Amino acid sequence: MESIIQNRDLYRIPWTLPDNAISWLEPTAQCNLACDGCYRENDKDSHKSLEEVKHELDIFEKYRNTDCISIAGGDPLLYPHIIELVAEIKKRGLKPIINTNGKALTKEFLSDLKKAGVFGFTFHVDSKQGRGAEWKGKSEIELNELRLQYAQMLADEGGISCSFNSTVYEDTLQYVPDLVEWAHKHIDIVHTMVFIAFRHIVPNLPMDFYAAGEKVDWHEIHYHSEATRRVDIMSTDVLARVKERFPDFTPCGYLNGTENADSYKWLFTERVGTKNKIYGYLGPKFMELSMMFNHLLTGKYLSYAAPKLSRKGRATLLLLWPFDKKIREAFKEMMKNPFRIFKRSHLQTILFIQPVDFMEDGRQSMCDGCPDITVWNDKLVWSCRLEEPKRYGSFLHTFPRNN
Length: 403
Ligand code: SF4
Fold this sequence. Notes:
Layout: E1 11-12, E2 19-25, H1 50-63, E3 65-71, H2 82-91, E4 95-100, H3 107-116, E5 120-124, H4 144-157, E6 161-168, H5 176-185, E7 192-197, E8 207-211, E9 214-216, H6 235-245, E10 253-255, E11 266-273, E12 278-281, H7 284-298, H8 307-310, H9 313-320, H10 325-335, E13 346-353, E14 357-358, E15 364-365, E16 373-376, E17 379-382, H11 387-392, E18 397-400
Parallel strand pairs: 1-10, 2-3, 3-4, 4-5, 5-6, 6-7, 7-13
Antiparallel strand pairs: 8-9, 8-18, 10-11, 11-12, 11-13, 14-15, 16-17
Helix pairs in contact: 1-2, 9-10
Bound molecules: iron/sulfur cluster.
Iron/sulfur cluster (SF4) binds near residues 265, 355 and 366.
């Protein structure tokens, strides 16, 4: 069956292990929620010392040319030295991005983080997080109210990049187009929306797991579910859903899988418009220009753009139309009403992530050029599977189950 997208229509983002826009730092594994799809074991005694975390930053600086540091966990807002950590990352010339569920964020805390140099936030909000009474049982659509609260909080503080991510489960896939539509309504203050396909080890995954040649009981692996669940949602499944509602929606960049060139592990879409109208979806040349110019000018690939750059939708269309067919189409759409040229327009990123895929022969396909690499025992490792080296000393190998 022909895929709804082709490699030749997309720009392969040039991120690699030693030269990557993003790196992932976990100062704590403590969290104040218990998300269904979480891959980190919640541990309230897991705060690292500031010295340990600085050492991990040294490891990144030694092995990995990076633009931003995603500070994750656990929830990094529970880390007692978070303000000093943000200041330290900023001092090293990197962009500190806080990945949080937002629960511990107050206006005063935000203001202190801004003074320390925070560049952006990625708020994880979805309907399977076990949030308190106020949000209990709320649907993905109802949770837009909470998303808006966080986006508005950042907009009021000003100058901070605002992203959201949600895990996509079999029963919530249907709501992705609603969230994409909500993001459009708030294109002026929401810069990025990320949708991550759910992955767990489940009874219906026909694999046996091995550590150092010994079989491991899959029930002991932290990220497992006892129930039969769908763990094979692809980024193209999410894209197909979105295209049903928005047929023009077109991705422009991707990261492939380590085991297959035609899987879209990170699938990027860039769109431009106002709160009332999307003028169009930018093409692969736009993505290539953004990456190459940034690398030429700063020596690093671009990750999160500053909010003042995201407001340059109109300038992007006016200046870059000769380079990209899709920009020309968006430009033409804008000019259907010449008065639109006086209106500020915005850029917004929509990203679909498809984590580990287990191949029929037992190979595991990870994200080639994984941006969410973290440090473990002075080595660079995948953050999504960190519980494996922590518990077994190495990543697990898989073989098809013989029964
Ligand atoms: S390999 Fe894992 S940690 Fe890396 S980007 Fe993919 S899902 Fe994230």
